C-alpha cells in the first residue's frame, strides 16, 4: 500500500513538474521591440497617355478584296519626334497617319494618308521630315505643314537615316539617297559598294550608325555586310542563323550592332522536278544577336523566344523588346544591354505591334493590335537600373489595409530566410558542391530587405527575381500582387525539328520550353520555419515539388517547430544528388551571370538492343553555352497524365557543347518523356517527346 502511495505521489509530482515547465515555456515572453522599417516597392512605369487611333477609312488606298476594315485596325508603327517628346506619330494598317500631342489624348493634331497598307514611320534626325513606307512605296512628309514632299517607288518597309542628310532604302538591294533637298532627292549609290563581297541574296534590312560612319545591310540568307559609309570600303561580314531578317540596328552610343529575325524550323519542298516546285520555310523561334562594333565579337544573343523587334534607349543602356504573346512571353520587356538582365515588363493592352523611345529616354510608346497607342513614363530609379541585381530572393510582407505590422516581423523574416539559406548550403555541401546557396536582397545594414504591401495596393513591379510573399493573415487573398501570375509562366518556343527514327517506333517531338525569370511564391507568417520555406522555394529554383513530401496537417503543424530542429527535419525538402548538381549552375546560386542565351537543340530516337531487349531513349543535344546537365522525366501516373511528371534520371555533361546521351527504360508502358537541359549559365530548356508504334 505504501509503495502504491509513493508511486501515485511520484506521478503527481512528475505531472506538476511537467505542468510548471509547460507553463514557463508557453507563457508569453517579454520581447524586446526592435524598430521596424520597410523598403519601398519598385514601381512600374506609369501609363501617362492613351491615343485611340480608330478605324478611319483611308481614301488614298485601294483595299484588296481580302482586307476588311477590321483588318485595318492594328497600329503598325509609332515614332517619337527626335526634337519634341510631346509629338508622336502613329499609323494603322490601312495607312492612316495621325500626329498626337501627349498633353491632348482626345484629338490628333493632324491626319495624313499614306497610299498603301501596313506601313511604318520614321522621323528624320532633325525632326522636320517624316517617312512613311510600305512594301512598295515611300513617302516623304513635311512635319510642320503636313504636306507630301516626294514619293519613291519600289521600296520595302526597312529604312535608315544618316545624321548628315542621307536616307537608305531596301528593295532587294540597298540604295542610298541624298534628301538634303527633300523636293529633289537624288540616288547616291547602290550597295554593295564592293562587288567582291556581294552576297547572293536579297537585302531585307538596313541600318546606319548614329555618327554616320557605318552602314550595314542584312540579307535573307542570314548574312550581314558592314561598310564604311565615308570611304565605301567593306568592313565586316557577319553570319547569323536568321532568315528574312526583321530588324538591324546600331546602338545610339555606337557600341553595338544588333539584328534579329526568325530561325527556320524546317524547309518543305513542294513539287516533283527541280524547277517546278517551291520551298516553304516554316519559321520557329525569333531572337537576336548583338556584336561589339570595335572588334565584331558577339556581345550576347537570345535565340529562345519571340523577340520580334527591339529598340535602344537614347543612352544605349536599355533595350525594349517586343513579341506578340503578351502573357506567356510578357509582351514588352525592358532589359540591360550590358548583360541581358531583365529590368521590367509592361502590361500591354493587347498584342504589341511596335515600340519607340522618346529622345530623352523617359517615355516609351507602344502601338497595340487593337488600335491604341500607349505612352509609358519611366522614373529615375528604373533608368538607373540598367544593370539590376538579378536572381535574388526578395521578401514581401502583406497586410490587410487596416492592420499594423506584427512586432519584430522584420527580425523574424530575416532570421527565417537565413535559416533557409543555411539549409540549402548544408544540402549542397552534403553532395560535395561546397556551401553554395542562394542570395537574398539586403539593406544597408546587411539585414533582409522587407517590402510592405497593403491589400488592394496598385500594380507594382515584380517582373524579375523570386518574390517570397508572407501574409500576416493566412485567409487573406493574394490580390495585393495583381497580374503577377503571368510573370512566372513557362515559355513555349519551337525549334528545328528532326523526327527520330527507330525500327519499331515513330518519335513525335513537341516544342522546346524554357523557364522565365520572375516568380512569386506565397505563404503565411505561420510557416516561418526552414523546412516549409525551403520546400516552397524548390519550384522557383527549377526543382520539382514532390507529392506527399510535405503536406501540412494539424499534427505536423503542432510539432513543426520541434521537427525543424531535429535531424529528421531535413527530409521534408532535402535535395537529391541530381538536384544539387543542377543548383550548382543555377542562376540563383551563381549571381551576376549573363542572361544571354544561345540556341539549344534536342532530338530523340529509340533503340532496342538485342542483348537486353530494353528500350534505350537516345538524345542528341547541343548548346553553344555548354551543357551542364540533362534530366529525364516520365509520367507520374500512366493512367492520369494530369498528375504531371516525376524525375527518372540525370547525366552530367560538364560543359560539352554537343553530346549524345541514352537512358534505359524498363517499363514498356512509358511512351512519353521529357528531357530537360541546363546550360553552363543556368538557362533551362526542356522538350517533350512521345513515341508511337509504327503502322
Structure description:
With 695 residues, the chain is mainly beta. The protein contains seven helices and 39 strands. Strands 32, 33, 35, 36, 37, 38 and 39 form a seven-stranded antiparallel β-sheet that branches. A four-stranded antiparallel β-sheet has the order 1-28-27-26, with no helix packed on it. It has a four-stranded antiparallel β-sheet with strand order 2-3-4-5, with no helix packed on it. Helix 3 crosses helix 4. It is globular. The protein starts with a helix and ends with a strand. The relative contact order is 0.08.
Features:
mainly beta; four-stranded antiparallel beta sheet; 695 residues; seven-stranded antiparallel beta sheet; single chain
What is the fold's blueprint, element by element?
Elements: H1 2-26, E1 46-52, E2 75-80, E3 87-92, E4 96-101, E5 110-113, E6 120-123, E7 129-133, E8 137-142, E9 148-153, E10 159-161, E11 166-171, E12 173-178, E13 186-190, E14 203-208, E15 214-219, E16 223-228, E17 234-239, E18 247-250, E19 256-270, E20 278-292, E21 298-302, E22 309-312, E23 318-322, E24 332-336, E25 342-346, E26 352-357, E27 363-368, E28 372-377, H2 380-384, E29 393-399, H3 409-430, E30 450-454, E31 466-471, E32 490-493, E33 505-515, E34 519-524, H4 530-536, H5 554-558, H6 560-563, H7 577-583, E35 600-607, E36 615-635, E37 645-665, E38 672-679, E39 684-693
Parallel strand pairs: 29-30, 29-31, 31-34
Antiparallel strand pairs: 1-28, 2-3, 3-4, 4-5, 6-7, 7-8, 8-9, 10-11, 11-12, 12-13, 14-15, 15-16, 16-17, 18-19, 19-20, 20-21, 22-23, 23-24, 24-25, 26-27, 27-28, 32-33, 33-39, 35-36, 36-37, 36-38, 38-39
Amino acid at each position: 500500500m505504501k509503495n502504491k502511495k509513493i508511486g501515485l505521489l511520484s506521478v503527481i509530482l512528475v505531472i506538476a513538474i511537467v505542468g510548471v515547465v509547460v507553463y514557463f515555456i508557453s507563457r508569453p515572453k517579454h520581447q524586446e521591440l526592435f524598430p521596424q522599417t520597410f523598403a519601398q516597392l519598385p514601381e512600374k512605369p506609369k501609363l501617362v497617355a492613351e491615343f485611340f487611333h480608330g478605324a478611319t477609312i483611308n481614301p488614298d488606298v485601294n483595299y484588296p478584296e481580302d482586307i476588311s476594315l477590321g483588318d485595318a485596325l492594328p497600329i503598325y508603327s509609332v515614332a517619337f519626334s527626335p526634337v519634341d517628346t510631346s509629338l508622336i506619330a502613329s499609323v494603322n494598317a490601312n495607312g492612316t497617319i495621325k500626329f498626337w500631342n501627349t498633353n491632348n489624348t482626345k484629338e490628333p493634331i493632324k491626319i495624313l494618308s499614306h497610299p498603301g497598307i501596313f506601313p511604318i514611320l520614321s522621323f528624320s534626325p532633325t525632326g522636320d521630315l517624316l517617312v512613311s513606307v510600305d512594301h512598295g512605296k515611300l513617302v516623304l512628309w513635311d512635319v510642320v505643314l503636313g504636306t507630301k514632299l516626294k514619293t519613291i517607288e519600289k521600296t520595302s518597309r526597312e529604312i535608315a537615316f544618316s545624321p548628315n542628310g542621307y536616307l537608305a532604302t531596301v528593295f532587294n538591294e540597298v540604295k542610298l539617297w541624298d534628301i538634303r533637298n527633300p523636293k529633289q532627292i537624288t540616288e547616291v549609290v547602290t550597295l554593295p559598294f564592293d562587288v567582291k563581297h556581294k552576297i547572293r541574296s536579297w537585302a531585307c534590312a538596313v541600318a546606319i550608325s548614329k555618327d554616320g560612319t557605318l552602314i550595314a545591310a542584312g540579307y535573307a540568307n542570314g548574312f550581314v555586310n558592314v561598310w564604311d559609309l565615308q570611304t565605301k570600303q567593306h568592313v565586316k561580314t557577319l553570319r547569323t542563323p536568321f532568315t528574312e531578317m526583321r530588324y538591324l540596328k546600331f546602338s545610339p552610343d555606337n557600341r553595338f550592332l544588333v539584328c534579329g529575325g526568325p530561325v527556320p524550323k524546317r524547309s518543305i519542298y513542294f513539287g516533283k522536278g527541280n524547277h517546278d516546285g517551291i520551298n516553304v520555310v516554316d519559321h520557329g523561334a525569333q531572337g537576336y544577336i548583338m556584336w561589339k562594333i570595335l572588334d565584331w565579337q558577339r556581345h550576347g544573343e537570345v535565340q529562345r523566344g519571340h523577340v520580334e523587334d527591339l529598340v535602344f534607349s537614347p543612352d544605349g543602356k536599355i533595350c525594349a523588346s517586343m513579341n506578340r504573346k503578351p502573357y506567356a512571353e510578357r509582351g514588352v520587356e525592358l532589359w540591360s544591354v550590358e548583360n541581358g538582365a531583365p529590368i521590367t515588363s509592361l502590361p500591354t493592352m493587347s498584342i504589341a505591334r511596335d515600340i519607340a523611345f522618346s529622345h530623352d529616354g523617359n517615355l516609351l510608346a507602344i502601338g497595340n493590335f487593337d488600335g491604341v497607342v500607349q505612352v509609358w513614363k519611366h522614373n529615375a530609379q528604373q533608368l538607373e537600373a540598367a544593370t539590376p541585381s538579378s536572381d535574388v530572393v526578395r521578401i514581401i510582407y502583406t497586410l490587410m489595409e487596416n492592420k499594423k505590422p506584427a512586432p519584430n516581423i522584420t527580425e523574424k523574416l530575416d532570421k527565417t530566410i537565413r535559416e533557409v539559406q543555411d539549409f540549402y548550403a548544408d544540402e549542397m555541401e552534403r553532395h560535395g558542391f561546397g556551401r553554395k546557396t542562394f542570395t537574398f536582397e539586403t539593406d544597408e545594414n546587411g539585414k533582409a530587405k522587407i517590402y510592405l504591401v497593403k491589400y488592394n495596393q496598385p500594380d507594382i513591379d515584380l517582373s524579375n527575381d523570386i518574390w517570397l510573399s508572407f501574409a500576416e493573415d493566412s485567409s487573406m487573398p493574394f490580390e495585393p500582387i495583381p497580374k503577377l501570375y503571368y510573370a512566372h509562366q513557362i515559355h513555349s518556343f519551337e525549334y528545328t525539328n528532326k523526327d527520330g527514327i527507330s525500327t519499331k517506333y515513330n518519335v513525335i517531338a513537341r516544342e522546346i520550353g524554357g523557364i522565365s525569370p520572375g516568380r512569386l511564391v506565397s505563404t503565411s507568417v505561420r510557416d516561418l520555419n526552414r523546412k516549409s520555406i525551403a520546400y516552397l522555394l524548390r519550384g522557383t529554383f527549377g526543382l520539382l515539388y514532390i507529392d506527399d513530401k510535405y503536406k501540412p496537417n494539424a499534427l505536423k503543424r503542432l510539432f513543426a517547430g520541434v521537427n525543424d530542429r531535429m535531424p529528421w527535419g531535413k527530409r521534408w525538402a532535402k535535395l537529391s544528388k541530381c538536384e544539387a548538381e543542377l543548383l550548382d549552375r543555377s542562376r540563383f546560386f551563381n549571381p551576376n551571370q549573363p542572361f544571354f542565351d544561345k540556341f539549344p537543340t534536342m532530338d530523340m530516337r529509340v533503340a532496342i538492343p538485342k542483348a537486353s531487349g530494353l528500350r534505350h531513349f537516345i538524345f542528341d543535344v547541343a548548346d553553344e553555352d555548354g551543357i551542364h546537365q540533362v534530366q529525364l522525366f516520365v509520367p507520374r501516373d500512366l493512367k492520369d497524365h494530369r498528375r504531371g511528371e516525376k524525375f527518372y534520371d540525370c547525366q552530367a555533361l560538364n560543359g560539352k557543347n554537343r553530346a549524345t546521351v541514352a537512358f534505359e527504360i524498363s517499363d514498356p508502358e512509358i511512351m512519353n518523356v521529357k528531357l530537360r537541359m541546363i546550360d553552363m549559365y543556368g538557362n533551362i530548356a526542356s522538350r517533350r517527346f512521345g513515341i508511337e508504334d509504327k503502322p
